[in-house]
Amino acid sequence: MSEQATKILLADDHSMIRRGLKIFLQTTMGFPSVGEVSTCSELLLELNRNRYTHLILDIILKDGNSLEVLPTLRRLFPDLRIMMFSMQPTEIYGPAIRQYQIHQYMHKTASEEEMLIGLGKFIKEDAQPSNQETKESGQNPFSSLAPRELEILHYLLKGMGTKHIGETLNLRMSTISTVKNRIFEKTGAQNLKDLIELAALYNLNY
Length: 206
Description:
Blueprint: E1 8-11, H1 15-28, E2 34-37, H2 40-49, E3 54-57, E4 60-61, E5 64-65, H3 70-76, E6 81-86, H4 94-99, E7 104-107, H5 112-123, H6 147-157, H7 162-169, H8 173-187, H9 192-201
């Protein structure tokens, strides 16, 4: 893929992050065609409207967790190269990165030099989809959660009830309850207060 054909979409709920990354891609790296969205719904609409080659995606967007739309993205746009750009701990989202064939994961605290190298590899197709196990911490209670559990965890931490989560994800309340119980079991949390405190302790944003 030539650099002239490269068209990049940024999906992030923080306007300053989008603006800074867009300037970096355009002025420092020389990729002029960069679009922006802030929500999961805008993301799907924009990808349907315009043909993008690369997507730089935050995990938490304004209207939900981007894991919710990744299966659809992979089905509708199988050739789209995707990089996660997030503050979320890498070890927690390792299973999702493998399942949805994410090409690269970059933490938002990366230095300018690390961003230049990482983005360069991603855009120039040096980075391949990750199928390998990411380094996981045995002490991190969230590292064993599956992608669906992470989706529901996001809404639990926001204080949403079982019925509301079910309506949001179009799932039965019994399914939400089952997954919720699995989350408590895997993390060792006794209640929602424990879960929220654990999330804060391990820098899990929601």
